[in-house]
Write a structure and sequence with these properties.
Layout: H1 14-25, H2 31-44, H3 46-67
Helix pairs in contact: 2-3
Length: about 70
Amino acid sequence: METGMITVEIELDEELMRRVEAVLRSYSITIEQAVVLFLEWCVENPELAGRELLRWKRLQEEVGQDVC
């Protein structure tokens, strides 16, 4: 029986995973729940999500350049 759901695998290094779990624990949600909430936000706010994703990508690229 098909449920209309898919499985998504996300790889995080251990340190990032620990930090994410610590932040989310204060909100009483799991990382899986946070990912679903984020994806729902993206669907409900596509223009804002698109702008933010591009902005976050640029910030990540800037940080990467600073490290080199």
